[in-house]
Amino acid sequence: MFVELADTLVAGFDVIELLHSLCERCVELLEVDAAGVLLADTRGALTLAAASTEQVRLLELFQLQDEEGPCLDCFHSGVQVASSDLGVEPQRWPRFSAAARDCGFTAVTALPLRLRDERLGAMNLFRSDAGALDEEMVRVAQALADVAAIGIVHERAFGRSELVVEQLQGALNSRTVIEQAKGVLAERGRIDVSDAFAVMRSYARDNNRLLSEVARAVVLQAPEVADMLSTKTRSDS
Q1: CA atoms of 111 and 117, how far apart (whole Å)
Q2: What is the mean pLDDT of residues 57-74?
């Protein structure tokens, strides 16, 4: 996974794809059931960047809308924030805790996405079972998040905060297009939005293209949309 993230230190990598890979690898490698990443925009406000499932995407959006939750506390403090049992301390984040438990999550760990003293965002790790995440797992997760942060900023941008902000804002703008494209592809192909996102990611990887570029093609109703859907149909048959 560290090699996969390090491979992003080249020109033209896709920040949103990187963060989705980060979420997926955390779920695969650590004792967590789901993950989500929030990035700060040019105003310093957190915005959804990636989620391992559609359910988590909605939960993260709820957290942002309600302005309450572990990722927000983690981002503002710059340190790890965790709850080993949301049911035991519901007063900490009353609305978020209730929403998370409705989704089947009992414990959460939020880790900062940062480079040196600059906070770029935060990552939520969700567990269905109560209990603190093992410290070794936390260290691995933070190391993965740190490598991803380096990938986002890019080695040539070190020390240039204005370029960092520009790159992050570009990633968040891409996220908006991707969300639009998911809806377009889901409606056109009569598939659910999670499948639509998987189709776009697969098509982008197979054709060595940026996920954001493929998403824009979907929104613009480019002819290749039919190719994406036919690929999905062939894989299901």
Answers
A1: 14
A2: 94
